Amino acid sequence: MTQDYGPEARERFLDEPPKRAGRTPFERDRARVVHSSALRRLSAKTQVMGAGTDDFVRNRLTHSLEVAQVARELGKSLGCDPDIVDSAALAHDLGHPPFGHNGEVALDQAAADIGGFEGNAQTLRLLSRLESKAYSLELGRSVGLNLTRATLSACVKYPWGRDDAPDDARGKFGSYADDAEVFAWLRADAPHHRRPVEAQVMDLSDDIAYSVHDVEDGVFGGYFALDPATLDTAAIYETARDWYDATASDVRMGAALDRLQALVEWPTESFDGSRRAHAALKSLTSALIGRFAMAAQAATVARWGAGPLIRFEADVEVPEQTRDEITVLKALAAHYVMRTDQRASVQDRQRELLLALVTALAAGEGRALEPDFAADFHAAADDTGRRRAIIDQVASLTDVSARSWALRLLD
User: Which CATH class, in words, describes the domain spanning 2-186?
Assistant: First the structure.
């Protein structure tokens, strides 16, 4: 498949000596992501429920592995290089801070005067600067994993900076001003604001995986049941509009939920923790993932042909009914798990912890930072650079290490 990707797609930001034959450049990219310390840290970062709260529920690492499985199969069916979409899926959450999206809110507040914080922009920064694999003597800094342009482009879910975001971006962006050089390089000759097919496959696979698996985790954890009589549909549909799709009407969401509940795999008995109940729940998750992925594959091929579909030659097409079904599942889990009063109280304390850490590290003038981040802090030309080094440090922490640092620095 890689013969369809030209020299521009295979180029790296920093030229590297020739490698031994036997592996494609995209296979090397995937190996670099797999062996990165940032990927390992995801095992102790929150997905939806706190990392380590239960041996069954997902953390960021297991979620990323599942996204990669979906992306690899879907991308391959469209003719994308499977290693590119696999790498993008494995890397898509690397920039997430402790405590998941709640941590993003806190660090965005802490970085409000230096360009903000966004997990996706942090992913690009990590892949191209913070995660050391290659070092540029000319630039005098790490260039991260030095991935190929095709792979790095596939990792960028939002191909714009904060000041260049489209009106419907909902505060999402993919690059800080400090990383403008590598962002301009990876976007060379790319259509404005358009994502390559590989990034679209990664993004859809993320939606599919977490919409399905968050429901599975919520049912297993006892947060809600799938019995239609027990679901507060009005609240679920309102959450769908608030969090995911402002156009999601009750009629559309109700029709989507009806279609899903009509599936033969939708459980008819309450979850009691037995192997039989586990099997029924797993059967549902498999059916949903296959349903969503095959619908997108069929629609994309119908619109763009059989491919191979790569780079900017096509878009991933998702039928509106499939979008609605994914949205209503995400809203179901969000309403019953993420919007509870108990969780809101925990999230308040998490944000306070991260903000206090940023303040304490700034007051310590870099002394408490790990060596790499301390070097960035002292090499910075201004307060903006020094604050960004502190934000990078806190974002790198896991849920566990963030609490440990708080005990040590904040008593």
Answer: mainly alpha
